[in-house]
Amino acid sequence: MSNLPKIAWIGLGIMGSPMAENLIKAGYSVTGYTLEADKLERLTKNGGHAAGSIAEAVTDADVIITMVPASPQVEAIAYGPDGILAHARRGALLIDMSSITPQTSIDLAHAAADKGIRVLDAPVSGGEAGAIEAVLSIMAGGEQADFDAARPLLETLGKTIVRCGPHGSGQTVKAANQLIVAVNIQACAEAVVFLEKSGVDLPAALDVLGGGLAGSTVLARKKNNFTTRDFTPGFRIDLHHKDMGIVTDAARAVGAALPVGTVVAQLVAALRAQGDGGLDHSALLRGVERLSGHTTEN
């Protein structure tokens, strides 16, 4: 019998599925629940167990991990007679790895405490590739003791794992992360169009830029998307639009100016309004192409 904690995993999307599979590979018993039957089938094929409801998934779990798109989904799975808080056992640890508003995380932690359930907010950065390779950055908020208890599990999922402060802090740092990523992608997209319109060998240019001060994880991860115009979603524009709303609202609440971030948030919103919400966020390139009259769209 394994001495590892029993895991319930709620939400098996682009990120959640490979993350749950990495726990299974590490020897954890993982019971998953999601609304998509094919994702449950994938989990069982990889050694996990499928549950027919949230209650079934969490009742016997030591640790419950949630990975869903936004605050409304977190609230839907956490609260109410069919939710996590109604069925998780006292002493269980709930790790929410979704990207949501800091206040949602704070409210969840307070509600869970009344049920004797511990909570960490632990959103991640690194995209689908980072999830598959188990090299995610994980930014956590919550009690130090709960973070210490979760750390061995989190080390199975990521490479950089940091407690950033009390409940909600992980979400605040994730919002800052999404601001930096969006601005970086936009800058890369503008550079790509500038280079192509100037007649420069784009792959060669991106290679040399990546080796200098302009280099970044964003450029390294998204270079192929830019050169091939492959915008298969690793992280969808729809989700980055949601995240830009979180960071702009949170910044307004604390009185922080985001002059460049606000412009990029509008560009993300415009791309979504043009029907590109389901594409990878590297598709910000499409918006720059349209503005530049340099489209390569089919």
UniProtKB/TrEMBL annotation:
InterPro entries to which the protein is assigned, alphabetical: 6-PGluconate_DH-like_C_sf (IPR008927), 6PGD_dom2 (IPR013328), 6PGDH_NADP-bd (IPR006115), HIBADH-like_NADP-bd (IPR029154), HIBADH-related (IPR015815), NAD(P)-bd_dom_sf (IPR036291), Tartro_sem_red (IPR006398)
Active site: K174
Domain 3-hydroxyisobutyrate dehydrogenase-like NAD-binding, chain residue ranges per copy: 168-286
Stretch forming the signal peptide: none
GO-annotated molecular function: 2-hydroxy-3-oxopropionate reductase activity; NAD binding; NADP binding
Gene Ontology biological process terms, A to Z: glyoxylate metabolic process
One Pfam family hit: NAD_binding_2
Family the UniProt entry places it in: Belongs to the HIBADH-related family.
SUPFAM superfamilies on file: 6-phosphogluconate dehydrogenase C-terminal domain-like, NAD(P)-binding Rossmann-fold domains
Source species of the chain: Streptomyces nigrescens
EC number assigned by the record: 1.1.1.60
Descriptive protein name: 2-hydroxy-3-oxopropionate reductase
Key words, A-Z: NAD, Oxidoreductase
Domain 6-phosphogluconate dehydrogenase NADP-binding: from-to ranges: 6-164
